[in-house]
């Protein structure tokens, strides 16, 4: 530290100004630039990464802090976690998210319990390829599919459900589609009866024969009543 002498006030002032400039530079760092991600590999949950490895995932670049496996960078990039966020990928190579549509079951469908049903979806990516499609029912994972057709079977149980299907493309962008449906107890549902007549047009005094065909799959039909109504 320089000893200040009488008359050296200007030097003292310059020292204070320099100190303030250094402090300001520490408090206000320049904003980080966008990262060029074209050369970075896509993060893969089945690949192990050593410390220092860099990847891209969901339009951002990350660097591994230490060896890790199956640690999604998006969920593991807080302080003292496996990854550090480098920055957002350069928007010049913006990646379009994939599209996904649930084709079965229909929205608000009512299904019978005790049956095998097939959940199906269509997934496409306009500027790349679909990497995987994930089926989840009430938050529980049913299947992860890497190629079409995107279908999974399920044995129905009574209740109200939400099916969520997530499509992820080769650059990590994702899109979700959801569908709600219900499953009812089919152990004793009302029977269905088909009624036909021998004539479609009748006159007073004509004889008409009616035929009733009951349909019930679960239990035998106990009784069938025909009620005559005259208008």
UniProtKB/TrEMBL annotation:
Q: Which CDD domains match?
A: ChiC_BD
* Single GO MF annotation: endochitinase activity
Q: Enumerate the spans annotated as Cadherin domain.
A: 106-193
Query: SMART domains attached here?
Result: ChtBD3 (SM00495)
Instruction: List the SUPFAM superfamilies hit by this protein, alphabetically.
Output: Carbohydrate binding domain (SSF51055)
Cleaved signal peptide residues: 1-29
Q: What EC number(s) does its UniProt record assign?
A: 3.2.1.14
Instruction: Give UniProt keywords alphabetically.
Output: Glycosidase, Hydrolase, Signal
Q: Name one Pfam family in it.
A: Big_7
Would you tell me the protein name for this molecule? Chitodextrinase
**Organism field:** Vibrio variabilis
